[in-house]
Specification:
With about 180 residues, the chain is mostly helical. It has 10 helices and no strands.
Length: about 180
């Protein structure tokens, strides 16, 4: 396929300036949108409004107040403004607002929901590793325990249940599983 070169003609300039979209210019000349944009850049035409798709946030009192509110995160501001976090950060920088005084990591914003306590949802028998004992592998891994481990066939749920029953860390059990799996 040969590339059709569009000349710097009155017709092309008029289409670039007056057509509703770049796709309409491309359809008029029977070429691709990429070629129309490349030729317009080559001839030094001004960018079209539909060529840049970034949303701008005007320097308003509302935006400034949200920016200065230390309790709000970027995501909270974006949600209130109906924009993306990137648009918020870019607009703040463009307007020269400076760095935000954001709450320290781990602090709970008054506007965002608190993080759930994940350990509260665990069954009572799971002790979250606080009182799991360390084991001596040479003593702990008896033939019957190795047989029980082989019987799990590597299924994570079954291995986790064995670790719970034996009151040892699951990492020890999975490590031993990989050891015996490599031998067979």
């Amino acid at each position: 396929m040969t590339r059709r070169i569009l000349g710097d003609t009155f017709e092309f300039r008029a289409a670039w300036s007056n057509a509703p979209t770049i796709a309409a210019v491309a359809a008029k000349f029977g070429v691709s949108v990429a070629l129309v944009v490349a030729e317009a850049r080559r001839f030094g035409y001004a960018d079209r409004p539909d060529q840049r798709r970034c949303l701008r946030i005007d320097d308003t009192a509302e935006f400034r107040a949200l920016w200065d509110d230390a309790d709000l995160s970027y995501a909270d501001i974006a949600e209130k403004m109906g924009m993306s976090v990137r648009a918020i950060k870019t607009s703040g920088k463009r307007h020269g607002y400076g760095p935000r005084s954001t709450p320290p990591k781990g602090a709970v914003s008054s506007h965002s929901p608190a993080k759930p306590d994940l350990q509260a949802n665990l069954p009572a028998e799971v002790d979250c590793g606080k009182e799991l004992r360390r084991i001596d592998p040479a003593i702990f891994w008896t033939a019957s325990r190795l047989a029980d481990l082989r019987a799990t066939q590597g299924q994570y749920r079954a291995i986790a249940q064995l670790a719970l029953d034996w009151k040892i860390k699951i990492n020890s059990v999975t490590w031993q599983w990989h050891q015996i799996r490599g031998q067979s």
